[in-house]
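In this section we walk through a basic example: taking a raw amino acid sequence and producing a predicted 3D structure, encoded as discrete structure tokens. The instruction is simple. Fold the sequence below.
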Amino acid sequence: MESVSQAAVQQHKAEKPTARIFFPNLNGLRFLAVMLVIIDHVEENREQFKLSNYWNVPAIPLLGQLGVDLFFVLSGFLITYLLLAEKQKLGTIDFRAFYLRRVLRIWPLYFLVVGMSFFVFPYIEVLYFPELTPLVSQQLGYKLLLYVLILPNAVTHLFPIVPYVSHAWSIGVEEQFYVIWPILVCYSRRYIRNFLLLAGVIIVMTNIMWALTTPARHILPINEITTFIKYFLAFFRIQCMAIGGVFAVLLFHQRTQLLRLLTARPVQWILWPLLTILIIRGQQIPYFTHELYAVLFGMLVLNLALTDTSVVSLRLPGLDYMGRISYGLYMLHPLAIVLAIRIATAVGIAAGPTHHAAVYLIAVAVAIFLAAASYQWVEMPFLNLKKRFAHVSSGA
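The resulting token sequence is shown next.
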């Protein structure tokens, strides 16, 4: 069994906390995660627009879920690694600076999309969303308040979805994770135990709620409150981010024996095909689908972070750029998909495989254009400001 290379170990072991931490492969992985979500949403939107689609193929809905899970694992890995480096450098974690960095990274584009989705898109005819656009104005105050409070994952379970911003439920989960995570990292000594304990608590609570609200059992009354708690917990996947954090601890603290096992070439050659087969099959794992995929994704992230031992390289200039604009790709791709459907129909492309392919090509092109514009004109000014609050800088 081949061990992780000595160069890789020494690189991370000797790396000064003040140095710029950069995992070049991970930008490409971000783009792949976005593409999984886009494929899912193209098929879902084609279903909603009454166009031919593959929404009933089990692998398609799973792609979107796993794309988000991969984002969660990546976030947990990167944030944990940066927090550990900051704690090593300062002896503590600067909570104010951490939260300001998250605000400057997430909020500008998030609130732009929220505002446009509530007050602009519903009044543009070409962006009319079948059955859902008329519902945007209903209970507007409650929905808007929850989005403003960064609780979009609560809106999803209380009200009809708001087109073009409903996918931001995952942003809410990440922001809620960021509230507790620096505290846990700062005051923990046994990181892996505590991270796994948190993940275990969420997994147990989620499965208990599903078991107790099964209609055949009626152990708990099936009402609005229990239904909300049940689905909120099901989408409150901070356990996936905690799992990503575990792999960051292994790398940062150089748990050499585990690293040798997890980064061995035979393990990597099994990991990539295994993930591919499971995803293509649309394979669900009873009770633990997201957690088991998160472990596999964590192994993937760990191996890609160690670029000199990874059997796969995503270090391509195009992929790197797509990774850097991936937040914009994620937030703006629903708009791009609807525009693609409208454009493909307006230019007279006949329904069928050609129309299907055209929607994909146009949607990806429009999403990249919108994300690039967002990165340059909306996000970059705040990213430059964010650097002032960074004790440990990151290029990942």
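Looking at the output, two observations stand out. The first helix runs from residue 6 to 14. The chain has one domain: 6-389. In the next section we compare this with other chains.
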